[in-house]
């Protein structure tokens, strides 16, 4: 018999979480996890750079300047699949009530009713319970390819932003893996590894919504390379300043400004030719100056119109035909932050980016508080996938959180509680992460599994009582190996799984790498070579 308890007052989306059993938050990480710092105040993003909208009207540089651009290593990005990570700070629920995780037989190898109770679901809402309101007569939804609880808050948010066409081209995978509760010491962030796989952008390699070494709330598992430290920007002026070409582009038409800058490169080059290049220092100075002028000409050609940097002027993102209405966009900094990052990454201005969302340490706050926050995270995830669809670009999107939580069968019958069980405590044993893949050429195809590590869209599995089986795959009980599993899948999408051992020696995943790669490749090395 269920014991009826009155749920705590539902907290607002941006209202901070206060736990009597936790010490007062003092670090930036603790403030973010409990929602004391959120929205645009805590993040935004070099991704605002995303503001850089593609300009179909911009002209190619003159051939001699184009050659110098290549010699100076000034590139338009590496052409890898755009990668976005969502870092939900605090220990969000991602399994059972959201993405389904089953036993060794895969997502639909259902757990016990008691296990689903631990994961927040009453007996009449477990995934395999009869549900007359569903076409499948149960609580399973496979709209995203990846099986989900049909009333998952995150799923509802995702579906609210994605078109049927985008859904049909999306697939995903869930990874059963433990993660310590409420700590930044989980090395969850894969950004430096994604860079090592070859990801790069026209302006920046990595971006992140936090001014941290990883660009997010969680740490990265590998040594940081200061050359690729994620850039953080918290206002639009910081973004446009990154591509400042001076007053020249403001005083004349863009094409004229580019022509003037190209002439400056040539004149400077002729003067520099008089330097005795037998002296290595003089040669270095010549190269430095010449490349500096060339970079300025390139920036003026590519990004000379400041308005093109503004995501708010992209009608695919904001407005009557946009993913976000004007009212939504203006009312919530999380939407603005997401728009900036997704534009930056998906359009190739950055190779990869992290979006940190705070306030996910929501146990003890009833069920409704967690539901509305998961729904908003889902909206932001769905917005990224829908924008990839509108931009006709592939995307790999990874969702992770530092820890998880569990229920003890207390019901929240409030409107947003939806009759589900309340979250009452942290529980690292019920953690997981998942990734979604959008492919404009067709939904990614799941490869046959050749080992017990994976079954279909699921890597690892839960025990029947609803906890991660620690030996179900190499990364089940080691977050750094969980990240390596994600990196392996990123390379596999490029048909480059053979590079994994060279790029990540001592990776710890064993010899059966193919069995951990969920999807068949969708591109051959770069996105301009779709498979």
Topology:
Elements lengths: L27 H6 L5 H4 L20 H9 L11 E6 L24 H6 L21 E5 L1 E4 L3 H9 L2 H4 L2 E7 L14 H6 L7 E5 L27 H6 L6 H4 L2 H19 L7 H24 L22 H6 L1 H14 L3 E8 L10 H24 L3 E7 L3 E8 L7 E7 L5 E7 L15 E2 L2 E2 L19 H15 L6 H4 L19 E2 L1 E5 L1
Helix pairs in contact: 3-11, 5-14, 10-11, 13-14
Keywords for this entry:
531 residues; alpha/beta; 14% strand; two-stranded antiparallel sheet; 14 strands
Please give a structural write-up.
This protein is of the alpha/beta class. Among the domains are: 41-54 and 77-172 and 185-237 and 308-430 and 454-469, no CATH class; 244-303. It is 30% helix and 14% strand. The chain has 16 helices and 14 strands. The strands form four sheets. It has an eight-stranded mixed sheet with strand order 5-6-1-7-10-4-12-11, sandwiched between helices. A two-stranded antiparallel sheet has the order 2-3. A two-stranded antiparallel sheet has the order 8-9. A hairpin with a 7-residue loop joins strand 8 and strand 9. Helix 10 runs antiparallel to helix 11 (280-303). The longest helix has 24 residues, at 280-303. The chain is globular, with a radius of gyration of 24 Å. Residues 39-58 and 247-252 have low confidence and may be disordered.
Approximately what portion of the residues adopt beta-strand conformation? Answer: 5-15%
N→C terminal distance: 54 Å
Tally of helical runs: 16
**How much is the average pLDDT?**
83
What structural class do you assign from the helix and strand content?
A: alpha/beta
Pattern of helices and strands? HHHEHEEHHEHEHHHHHHEHEEEEEEHHEE
Q: Biggest sheet, in brief? A: 8 strands, mixed
Physical arrangement of strands within the biggest beta sheet:
5-6-1-7-10-4-12-11
């Amino acid at each position: 018999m269920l014991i009826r308890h009155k749920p705590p007052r539902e907290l607002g989306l941006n209202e901070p979480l206060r736990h009597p059993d936790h010490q007062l938050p003092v670090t930036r990480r603790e403030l973010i996890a409990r929602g004391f710092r959120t929205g645009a105040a805590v993040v935004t993003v070099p991704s605002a750079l995303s503001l850089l909208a593609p300009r179909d009207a911009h002209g190619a540089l003159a051939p001699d300047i184009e050659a110098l651009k290549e010699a100076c290593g000034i590139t338009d990005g590496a052409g890898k699949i755009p990668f976005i990570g969502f870092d939900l700070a605090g220990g969000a629920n991602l399994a059972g009530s959201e993405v389904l995780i089953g036993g060794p037989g895969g997502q639909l190898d259902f757990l016990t009713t008691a296990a689903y109770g631990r994961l927040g679901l009453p007996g009449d809402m477990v995934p395999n319970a009869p549900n007359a309101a569903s076409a499948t007569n149960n609580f399973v939804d496979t709209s995203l390819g990846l099986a989900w609880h049909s009333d998952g808050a995150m799923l509802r948010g995702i579906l609210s932003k994605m078109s049927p066409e985008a859904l049909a081209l999306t697939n995903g995978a869930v990874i059963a893996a433990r993660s310590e509760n409420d700590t930044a010491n989980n090395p969850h962030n894969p950004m430096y590894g994604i860079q090592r796989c070859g990801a790069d952008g026209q302006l920046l390699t990595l971006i992140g919504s936090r001014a941290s070494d990883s660009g997010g709330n969680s740490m990265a598992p590998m040594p940081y390379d200061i050359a690729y430290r994620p850039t953080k920007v918290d206002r639009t002026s910081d973004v446009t300043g990154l591509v400042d070409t001076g007053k020249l582009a403001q005083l004349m038409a863009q094409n004229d400004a580019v022509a003037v800058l190209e002439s400056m490169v040539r004149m400077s080059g002729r003067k520099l030719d008089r330097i005795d290049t037998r002296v290595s220092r003089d040669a270095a100075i010549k190269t430095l100056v010449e490349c500096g002028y060339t970079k300025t000409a390139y920036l003026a050609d590519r990004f000379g119109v400041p308005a093109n940097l503004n995501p708010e002027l992209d009608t695919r993102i904001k407005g009557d035909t946009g993913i976000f209405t004007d009212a939504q966009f203006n009312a919530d900094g999380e939407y603005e932050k997401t728009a900036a990052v997704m534009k930056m990454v998906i359009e190739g201005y950055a190779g990869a980016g992290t979006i940190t969302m705070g306030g996910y340490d929501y146990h003890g706050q009833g069920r409704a508080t967690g539901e509305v926050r998961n729904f908003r995270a889902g909206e932001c995830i769905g917005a990224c996938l829908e924008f990839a669809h509108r931009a006709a670009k592939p995307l790999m999107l990874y969702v992770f959180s530092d820890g998880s939580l569990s229920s003890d069968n207390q019901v929240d019958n409030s409107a947003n509680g939806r009759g589900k069980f309340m979250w009452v405590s942290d529980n690292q044993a019920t953690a997981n992460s998942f990734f979604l893949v959008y492919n404009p050429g067709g939904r990614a195809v799941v490869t046959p599994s050749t080992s017990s590590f994976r079954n279909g869209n699921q890597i690892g599995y839960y025990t029947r009582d609803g906890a991660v089986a620690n030996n179900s795959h190499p990364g089940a009980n080691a977050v750094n190996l969980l990240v390596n599993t994600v990196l392996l899948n990123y390379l596999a999408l490029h048909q480059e799984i053979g590079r994994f051992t060279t790029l990540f020696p001592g990776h710890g995943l064993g010899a059966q790498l193919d069995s951990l790669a969920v999807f068949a490749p969708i591109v051959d090395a770069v996105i301009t070579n779709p498979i």
